[in-house]
Amino acid sequence: FLVRDTRCVIWEAAKKRCFVCSKMGATITCWEPGCDRSFHLPCTLQGECVTQFFGLYRSFCWEHRPQQALQAPLRQNSTCSICLDPVEDETSYKTMGCPACQEARFHRPCIQRLALRAGIRFHCPCCQNQELFVMEMLTMGIRTCRRLPSWEGDPAVGPLDEKHSHCDASTCLCPGGRKYTEDEGPWKLLCCTSCAAEGTHQHCCSLEISSSTWECQGC
């Protein structure tokens, strides 16, 4: 019965079209009753969807995803508390905030990268709150992991704001080497959209030239 049920799930998913990339095989459907939007997991970021990696593992499209309700308005010229680059003028899918101190702001990719590297030490980078902060991040689709921080006992780990800058494919095909990158084309270097801790040239992982997102095998 289990094998039959699994096959049914696969067949049903094969019939669903991803509303982000328009390709078939979308295995995730919005949890909102009456919404039939489906999407692939790698298309989550591009489609501004939310998948919650806890509890019932619910997923939501861009229209029905949970929204943050922060009280403190953003100050002018606010910057990300992690990378220090400017953030949007208000909270959104790309710009998130801490529910505890109400003032810390960060880009979604920055806080996702911090969550995976910090492990069980994940907390607000400004006020250090953990319980309220982590629950909010989980609800907003940030994935965490139950392990020690990657920097503990590893002196080779660089600063959190240091962007990954080399190809981690098992066989790098780039004539210029693993650290070579171009703005466009087969030798454009893509970082994992979930952990940002691994990268690949588009050609080294047989990605289409139009691909702008990629996830490593670990994610």
TrEMBL record:
PANTHER family: PHD FINGER PROTEIN, PHD FINGER PROTEIN 7. One of its GO terms (molecular function) is zinc ion binding. The keyword Transport does not apply. It holds the Pfam family PHD_G2E3. This is PHF7 protein. Residues 1-65 form the PHD-type domain. One of its GO terms (cellular component) is nucleus. The gene is Phf7. Residues 80-128 form the RING-type domain. PROSITE patterns: EPHD, ZF_RING_2. Keywords: Metal-binding, Zinc, Zinc-finger.
